[in-house]
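With this grant's support, we have settled on a layout for protein records. One resulting record is reproduced below.
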Amino acid sequence: MPAYVFVEIEIYDEELYEEYKKMTPNTIEAYDGKFIVRGGETEHLEGDWNPERIVVLEFPSVERAREWWESEAYTRARLVRQRAADTKMIILEGA
Protein backbone atom coordinates (compact mmCIF):
# COMPACT_ATOMS: atom_id res chain seq x y z
CA MET A 1 0.00 0.00 0.00
CA PRO A 2 1.50 3.39 -0.94
CA ALA A 3 2.47 5.95 1.66
CA TYR A 4 2.65 9.71 1.33
CA VAL A 5 4.89 12.10 3.21
CA PHE A 6 3.25 15.54 3.51
CA VAL A 7 5.55 18.42 4.35
CA GLU A 8 4.77 22.04 5.18
CA ILE A 9 7.84 24.27 5.10
CA GLU A 10 8.51 27.84 6.18
CA ILE A 11 11.94 28.82 4.85
CA TYR A 12 14.05 31.42 6.64
CA ASP A 13 17.44 30.77 5.01
CA GLU A 14 16.92 30.48 1.23
CA GLU A 15 20.58 29.80 0.43
CA LEU A 16 20.86 26.94 2.91
CA TYR A 17 17.51 25.56 1.80
CA GLU A 18 18.80 25.43 -1.79
CA GLU A 19 21.63 23.20 -0.51
CA TYR A 20 19.02 20.91 1.09
CA LYS A 21 17.05 20.74 -2.18
CA LYS A 22 20.16 19.50 -3.98
CA MET A 23 20.85 16.83 -1.34
CA THR A 24 17.36 15.35 -1.11
CA PRO A 25 16.24 13.86 -4.48
CA ASN A 26 18.81 11.04 -4.52
CA THR A 27 17.89 10.05 -0.97
CA ILE A 28 14.22 9.79 -1.95
CA GLU A 29 14.93 7.79 -5.11
CA ALA A 30 17.15 5.38 -3.15
CA TYR A 31 14.05 4.33 -1.16
CA ASP A 32 11.80 4.00 -4.22
CA GLY A 33 10.15 7.34 -3.51
CA LYS A 34 9.21 10.19 -5.79
CA PHE A 35 8.01 13.77 -5.64
CA ILE A 36 4.29 14.26 -6.25
CA VAL A 37 4.28 17.96 -5.30
CA ARG A 38 7.38 20.08 -4.91
CA GLY A 39 6.58 23.60 -3.85
CA GLY A 40 4.03 24.54 -6.50
CA GLU A 41 1.60 27.42 -6.16
CA THR A 42 -1.17 26.94 -3.61
CA GLU A 43 -4.71 28.30 -3.67
CA HIS A 44 -6.51 28.92 -0.39
CA LEU A 45 -9.94 27.27 -0.25
CA GLU A 46 -11.01 27.13 3.40
CA GLY A 47 -9.85 27.69 6.97
CA ASP A 48 -6.82 29.66 8.09
CA TRP A 49 -4.13 27.39 6.64
CA ASN A 50 -1.87 29.36 4.30
CA PRO A 51 1.39 27.40 3.88
CA GLU A 52 4.45 28.95 2.29
CA ARG A 53 5.66 25.70 0.69
CA ILE A 54 4.16 22.19 0.43
CA VAL A 55 5.96 19.03 -0.64
CA VAL A 56 4.31 15.62 -1.09
CA LEU A 57 6.38 12.46 -1.53
CA GLU A 58 5.13 9.01 -2.48
CA PHE A 59 6.76 5.76 -1.31
CA PRO A 60 5.64 2.18 -1.95
CA SER A 61 4.88 1.66 1.77
CA VAL A 62 4.98 3.30 5.17
CA GLU A 63 7.95 1.09 6.01
CA ARG A 64 9.89 2.32 2.99
CA ALA A 65 9.10 5.95 3.89
CA ARG A 66 10.36 5.36 7.43
CA GLU A 67 13.54 3.72 6.11
CA TRP A 68 14.15 6.86 4.03
CA TRP A 69 13.47 9.16 7.02
CA GLU A 70 15.89 7.19 9.22
CA SER A 71 18.60 6.74 6.56
CA GLU A 72 22.06 8.18 7.06
CA ALA A 73 21.90 10.07 3.77
CA TYR A 74 18.59 11.76 4.55
CA THR A 75 19.66 12.51 8.11
CA ARG A 76 22.51 14.63 6.71
CA ALA A 77 20.05 16.49 4.49
CA ARG A 78 17.48 16.79 7.28
CA LEU A 79 20.00 18.52 9.55
CA VAL A 80 20.60 21.11 6.83
CA ARG A 81 16.85 21.63 6.35
CA GLN A 82 16.31 22.06 10.07
CA ARG A 83 18.83 24.92 10.07
CA ALA A 84 17.13 26.54 7.05
CA ALA A 85 13.41 26.16 7.77
CA ASP A 86 10.61 25.31 10.15
CA THR A 87 8.91 22.12 9.01
CA LYS A 88 5.84 20.03 9.78
CA MET A 89 5.95 16.50 8.32
CA ILE A 90 3.66 13.47 8.48
CA ILE A 91 3.43 10.02 6.85
CA LEU A 92 -0.02 9.08 5.62
CA GLU A 93 -0.94 5.58 4.49
CA GLY A 94 -2.62 5.59 1.09
CA ALA A 95 -5.58 3.59 -0.15
The beta strands are 3-11, 34-38, 53-59, 85-93.
